[in-house]
Design brief:
By secondary structure, the protein is an alpha+beta fold. It has one domain. The chain contains two helices and nine strands.
Length: 142
C-alpha cells in the first residue's frame, strides 16, 4: 500500500505527494513530522494491502496524535478507526478493523438492503480476492 499524499489539516495550502510504500514495514514517511500533541494529518491510501486486498483508488484517512502520545487513524466514509501506541500499530489496527468491517457488511448484504448499499460503496475503494491454495479458497479474517 502506498500513501499517495499527505496534507496537514492545519495547513490547507500544504500538499506533499509521497510515494514510499508501507506494505512491509507499516511505517509512514511523515512519522518524524507528526510529533506534536493534537497533530492532525490527512493521508490517502492506495494500492495493495496484501495479495488478497487492494485499495483500487485513493482512500482518505485522518491521522491524529493524541494528548497521551497515541495515534488514531480513521476515515470519514465508513467511520472505521484504528489506534495504537505508535503510527505503525495504529495503521495495523486500522487495516484490521477495515477488513473486519468489510466482512461484516459483506455477510449482512445477503439479507439487508443497507449493507448491500454499503458493500457497493466499499467495493468502490477496495477489492478483495481470496487466495487459491490447493484448489481451496482461503479467506483472511484479520
Amino acid at each position: 500500500m502506498t500513501v499517495a499524499n499527505v496534507r496537514p489539516a492545519f495547513a490547507n495550502s500544504l500538499f506533499a505527494p509521497l510515494t514510499r510504500s508501507i506494505e512491509s514495514e507499516h511505517s509512514l514517511p511523515h512519522q518524524r513530522i507528526a510529533t506534536q500533541k493534537g497533530f492532525h494529518l490527512q493521508a490517502h491510501l492506495f494500492g495493495d494491502l496484501s495479495p488478497e486486498w487492494r485499495f483500487t483508488k485513493p482512500f482518505s484517512v485522518n491521522i491524529v496524535l493524541g494528548e497521551d502520545g497515541s495515534y488514531v487513524i480513521s476515515d470519514e466514509i465508513f467511520l472505521v478507526y484504528g489506534n495504537g501506541e505508535n503510527l505503525s500499530m495504529a495503521m495495523e489496527d486500522y487495516i484490521s478493523s477495515f477488513k473486519e468491517y468489510y466482512f461484516i457488511v459483506r455477510d449482512g448484504a445477503l439479507t439487508n438492503n443497507f449493507d448491500r448499499v454499503q458493500l457497493g460503496q466499499l467495493e468502490n475503494y477496495i477489492q478483495f480476492n481470496p487466495v487459491r491454495n490447493n484448489n481451496a479458497i482461503q479467506t483472511e479474517r484479520n
